[in-house]
Amino acid sequence: MRFICCVVALSLCSVAYGQVYCDVELLSTQIQPPVPGVNWNDFNFSSRIVLGYEHDVYGVRARYWDYDQDFELSPGIPFGFDFKVADLEATRRFGDFLISGGFRIADETMWLPESFANTTQFGVTVAGEGNTGLSGGDCWGVSAVYGGRLSLLQGNWDYNPGPNTTLMRIGEFQNDTQSVTEAFAGLEGTYKNVISRVTLEMQNWESNALERRGWYDIGFLSIGWTIGARF
């Protein structure tokens, strides 16, 4: 309810001072776990919400991505990942191209029954996005959308090894640094103030702690559908 009130209030302000937008993205996400010998798991649901404001060519936006799924590490043994990622950034538009930069906080948890490893990472994030028109009319349009993002993060791990001491010893590594690269491409349709977008997105989370543990990077592959509105 509070979220809805904020959107309404910002919308009223935007009539005179700019444009408010809100996008909800539903993703079918596949993860490549960092554990050697474990392959890509099945596609599972994740979501992203974007709330932003633009005046002329300048703006600000907040993004929140939530991924919480588990799969079988081996028969009868679940292995879970819980990623909650928030970005707050300023934006600048150059025609059909938008650049952004700001701050990211990522809460990352990996768990097994009675065991977990968790880190909260803080850092900076920069991105670039393009929108190339393909066809359109007075109140509708179709365009190609594409972009990339780089985030540099740092934080410490906490862990409770429980009975799975060997697997969760990643938590022993402090001062972890992470480099996150993201890329997406797809098609977007607009009708008046409503947009709909279908995209293919890839993420790669490179962790210094995972490397020291002898593990791999964490990869995400997503097919996303976005519905949004401009007020």
Q: Quick gist of this model?
A:
The chain is mainly β and 231 residues long.
As a percent range, the share of helical residues equals: under 10%
Strand/helix succession: HEEEEEEEEEEHE
The tally of strands reads: 11
Count of helical regions: 2
What does this structure look like?
By secondary structure, this protein is mainly β. The chain is built from two helices and eleven strands; from the N terminus they run H-E-E-E-E-E-E-E-E-E-E-H-E. A hairpin with a 2-residue loop joins strand 5 and strand 6. Mean pLDDT is 88; it is low at 7-15. The chain has helices at 2-17, 208-213, and strands spanning 19-32, 44-55, 58-74, 77-94, 97-112, 115-136, 140-155, 157-160, 176-191, 194-207, 218-230. The chain has a ten-stranded antiparallel barrel.
Please specify the SSE layout and strand pairing:
Layout: H1 2-17, E1 19-32, E2 44-55, E3 58-74, E4 77-94, E5 97-112, E6 115-136, E7 140-155, E8 157-160, E9 176-191, E10 194-207, H2 208-213, E11 218-230
Antiparallel strand pairs: 1-2, 1-11, 2-3, 3-4, 4-5, 5-6, 6-7, 6-8, 7-9, 9-10, 10-11
Give descriptors for this structure.
231 residues, mainly beta, 10-stranded antiparallel beta barrel, 11 strands, elongated, 2 helices, single chain
